[in-house]
Amino acid sequence: MAKKASRAKRETLRVGIIGTGVMGQGHCNSIKKVAELELTAICDIDRPTAERIGAEHNVPYFLTHRELLDSGLVDMVIISTPHPSHGPIAIDAMNAKKHVLCEKPLSERISVAEQMVAAAKANRVKFAVMFQRRFEPVIAKAFEIARSGQIGKVYRATMISPEYRSQAYYDSGGWRATWSGEGGGVMMNQAPHIMDIFVNLAGLPTSVRGKVATRLHRIEVEDIAEASLQFGDTGGGSLYCSTNEVAPGQMIEVYGDKGKLCYRDGQLRFWKYPQTIAGFTRKNTAMWGSPERVEAPLEFPEEPTGHFRVMENFARHILRGEKLRCPAESGLASLELANAITLSSYTGKDVTLPLDRKAYDRLLAKLRKESTFQKVTKKSIKRETDPNHK
């Protein structure tokens, strides 16, 4: 094995990919686009896959993440294994003083995700989550508007997201769409990106009434999730995502006291209210009066997008102190919302946030223990990277 190089004045970081299935194989290629990163090792529990990917990229392969961490070949790891394994692997990496970039979601449980964040802080290593959609110019502009306070107090927030998948997709991996292997359905795998955008624009609701169901697929977790949301005393909203519905139709609207933000199928519009809704409602004397609204001109600077942008930003943050755009802590909110919706559905009750972590952990443990779902997929298992992976 190669000797561990000195970290002094290093201009590049040595990267190990843990998990070289669908996403991991794409990440091996994305690293080539980042000048500050060098792929130096890969890990996969499936020997034929590990051998093939290692040979393809001319790097050593390992069958366990601990062997990779002990090899002295990496400064950071990218974790792209099934969600329930993210936490144990990340914490082991952090304890080994390795920086960690984790695929979304951080974990299937908010309680474990918080342990991961705590471990990174305790070991003084950097920790980020793979939310590459934050680098899309339209999404970056929406974040800018929300963070500047131009929307004001939220009165309504709505999210709709078609995330279609066929049965063949679910059959491609034995871990997919099971309580043990994935810990959830559409909210754990397909919708985390749009849910991340949603909570960054609207904030976390104060309570949810959720419903999850399995309508079209032969899986044991949800292929549809919906919720009624409450934002304090004056705000409401709704959320809907499904792997049964085909695009277009992805949409987020956030209506507040100062403005209204509308995102639909990649297009963004924003209206400002010169006078706040509350102020106009109190002071207007005209019977049919309505608040003035002005559509703000929006500019979207050209910017490359894709997974490599998260990697590039993470590397530059570690090496040169560039501001981190996907810190792991920022991935907690959307996961907490997903867990809250699931807990509400199974208890049939409103769930207030912050979520009772222990209550959700008990529910998930119960669902796993009582699961009788049989998934026969040996003949259909595939490790093919999404053709849209960038």
Broad shape: globular
Uncertain runs: 1-8
Largest sheet: 9 strands, mixed
| Spatial ordering of strands, largest sheet | 14-13-12-11-7-10-9-8-15
Count of β-strands: 15
Strand content: 15-25%
Number of contiguous helices: 12
Question: On the 0-100 scale, what is the average pLDDT?
Answer: 95
Kindly state the percentage of residues in helix.
25-40%
* Helix-strand topology string: EHEHEHEHEHEHEHHEEEEEEHEHHEH
Tell me about this structure.
With 390 residues, this protein is α/β, with parallel strands linked by helices. The chain has twelve helices and 15 strands. It has helices spanning 22-30, 47-57, 65-70, 86-95, 110-123, 137-147, 167-171, 192-202, 277-283, 307-320, 332-347, 357-370, and strands at 13-18, 37-43, 61-62, 76-79, 99-102, 127-129, 154-162, 207-213, 224-231, 235-242, 251-256, 259-264, 267-272, 294-295, 351-352. Strands 14-13-12-11-7-10-9-8-15 form a nine-stranded mixed sheet. Helix 4 (86-95) runs parallel beside helix 5 (110-123) and helix 6 runs parallel beside helix 8. The longest helix is centred in the last third of the chain and has 16 residues, at 332-347. Residues 1-8 have low confidence and may be disordered.
Précis, in short:
The chain has 390 residues and is α/β, with parallel strands linked by helices.
Fill in the keyword field for this structure.
alpha/beta; 390 residues; 12 helices
How would the blueprint of this fold be written?
Elements: E1 13-18, H1 22-30, E2 37-43, H2 47-57, E3 61-62, H3 65-70, E4 76-79, H4 86-95, E5 99-102, H5 110-123, E6 127-129, H6 137-147, E7 154-162, H7 167-171, H8 192-202, E8 207-213, E9 224-231, E10 235-242, E11 251-256, E12 259-264, E13 267-272, H9 277-283, E14 294-295, H10 307-320, H11 332-347, E15 351-352, H12 357-370
Parallel strand pairs: 1-2, 1-4, 2-3, 4-5, 5-6, 7-10
Antiparallel strand pairs: 7-11, 8-9, 8-15, 9-10, 11-12, 12-13, 13-14
Helix pairs in contact: 4-5, 6-8, 8-11
